């Protein structure tokens, strides 16, 4: 049933309804045909019983006297009636089973064995219309005054009954096909119209491109049904997300300006104080250039002031520099990477496989910054290589004292230029980005290795990062 999953819901429901209608039609047709067969069997049995009973009354004395000509004449008159035309052949035998007369003497000669009339002779109560043969053979006792005086064999023509069954079957098939076709078409249109809000909601959720958009009011169903409420709830969520994003943007901007103001005032305060003294020193040097002692003292003052300003700028840089060595890798860092890569996954409709061993991360002391950059760069390249509706995967685990970060994609093989950037140390050729070479440099700075594999139409990049020696000693 895996092939059935990608089919849209607006097609699945009409197909299921049509399948149920076909099943119901088949069951109903079987019941109609079974009822028709029962009516036909009862009719043919009743006709055969009347035929046998009538002949028994008329032929009883003649059979006892073995009057061949009278028996033949009676059979001939019996076949002249309307229902008698169904009797293709009738033969009468005595108690020993020897034929006295038959409607077709050439086929059933006189004094022949009546059992040889047909191969599939059945009793009256077992008489059934069989699809395999257009005729039925009946063998019944000839009873006169309460005792059996002979036998009656009859071949009945049931071709018209079989034709009636075929016509009924054809009409049932045609009627069911027309009904199923019409109802399936109407059901498809009706269900598709009913599911239009769901399709619209799905489209808006999958085509967000990092920024969800509300459903227009013209596309929301009227009334207060479930689908209408669902669309309004989605619009409320989009509004809440937009408002939250705007609030976060304003808060971040405000914090940035506050931090910038604090930094500016701090720098102005720390630099402005010695700056006045430095300007006085330069004026003193200009005014008393002929006095070496004054120039020397002013130069020393300039040196101390400039050194102080240098210390201030260094302290400011150290306080605001992002040091990749200060924070260790945790599972939250990889969740941040997953969050950053999600817009690209949604835009290309990719299948993302994500497997992170949290125990392995807890046992490996590795800085977070370089690993985040490595994973993000490789995932971006994997998404671009996989293309729309492709497969991208990330697996993080441990093995042989290393943290293994494995990135896979189902796209074409990596070009030679990309492999040179990822695995080589030579100079880069003009053109192309620096992301793969950055991955190479970051992995090498951490003492790690990079492996490239290509098998079963899947490209696999594995970055193995060893545990730092001091961390290994601490674990031991």
UniProtKB/TrEMBL annotation:
This is histidine kinase. One of its GO terms (cellular component) is membrane. Keywords: Kinase, Membrane, Phosphoprotein, Transferase, Transmembrane, Transmembrane helix, Two-component regulatory system. Its main location: membrane. It is found in: Membrane. Its EC number is 2.7.13.3. The keyword Transmembrane helix applies. InterPro entries: HAMP_dom, HATPase_C_sf, HATPase_dom, His_kinase_dom, HisK_dim/P_dom, HisK_dim/P_sf, TCS_sensor_his_kinase. Residues 266-469 form the Histidine kinase domain. It comes from Paracoccus seriniphilus. The keyword Transferase applies. It catalyses: ATP + protein L-histidine = ADP + protein N-phospho-L-histidine. Residues 192-246 form the HAMP domain. The chain crosses the membrane at residues 168-191. GO terms for molecular function: phosphorelay sensor kinase activity.
């Amino acid at each position: 049933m895996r092939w059935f999953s990608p089919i849209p819901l607006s097609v699945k429901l009409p197909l299921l309804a049509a399948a149920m209608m076909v099943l119901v039609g088949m069951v109903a047709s079987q019941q109609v045909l079974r009822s028709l067969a029962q009516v036909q069997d009862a009719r043919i049995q009743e006709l055969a019983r009347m035929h046998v009973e009538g002949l028994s009354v008329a032929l009883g004395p003649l059979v006892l006297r073995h009057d061949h000509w009278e028996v033949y004449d009676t059979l001939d008159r019996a076949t002249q009636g309307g229902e008698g035309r169904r009797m293709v052949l009738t033969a009468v035998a005595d108690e020993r089973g020897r034929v006295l007369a038959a409607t077709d003497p050439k086929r059933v000669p006189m004094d022949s064995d009546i059992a040889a009339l047909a191969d599939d002779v059945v009793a009256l109560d077992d008489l059934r219309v069989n699809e395999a043969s257009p005729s039925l053979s009946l063998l019944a006792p000839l009873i006169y005054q309460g005792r059996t005086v002979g036998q009656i064999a009859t071949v009945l023509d049931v071709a018209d009954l079989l034709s009636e069954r075929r016509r009924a079957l054809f009409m049932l098939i045609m009627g069911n096909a027309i009904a199923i076709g019409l109802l399936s078409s109407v059901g498809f249109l009706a269900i598709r119209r009913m599911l239009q809000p769901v399709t619209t909601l799905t489209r808006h959720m999958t085509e967000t491109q990092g920024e969800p958009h509300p459903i227009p009011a013209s596309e929301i169903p009227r009334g207060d049904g479930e689908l209408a409420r669902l669309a309004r709830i989605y619009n409320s969520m989009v509004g809440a997300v937009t408002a939250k994003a705007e609030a976060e943007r304003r808060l971040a901007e405000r914090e940035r300006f506050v931090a910038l103001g604090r930094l500016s005032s701090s720098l102005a305060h720390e630099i402005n104080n010695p700056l006045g003294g430095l300007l006085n020193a330069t004026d003193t040097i200009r005014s008393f250039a002929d006095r070496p002692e004054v120039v020397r003292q002013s130069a020393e003052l300039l040196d101390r002031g400039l050194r102080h300003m240098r210390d201030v700028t260094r302290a400011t840089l150290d306080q605001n520099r992002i040091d990749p060595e200060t924070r260790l890798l945790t599972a939250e860092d990889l969740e941040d990477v997953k969050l950053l890569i999600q817009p690209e996954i949604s835009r290309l409709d990719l299948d993302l496989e994500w497997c992170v061993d949290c125990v392995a991360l807890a046992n490996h002391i590795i800085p977070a910054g370089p690993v985040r950059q490595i994973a993000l760069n490789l995932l971006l390249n994997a998404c671009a290589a996989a293309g729309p509706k492709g497969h991208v995967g990330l697996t993080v685990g441990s093995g042989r004292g290393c943290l293994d970060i494995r990135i896979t994609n189902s796209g074409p093989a990596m070009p030679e230029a990309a492999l040179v950037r990822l695995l080589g140390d030579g100079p880069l050729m003009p053109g192309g980005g620096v992301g793969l070479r950055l991955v190479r440099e970051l992995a090498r700075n951490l003492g790690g290795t990079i492996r490239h594999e290509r098998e079963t139409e899947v490209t696999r990049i594995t970055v193995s990062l060893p545990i730092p020696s001091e961390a290994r000693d601490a674990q031991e």
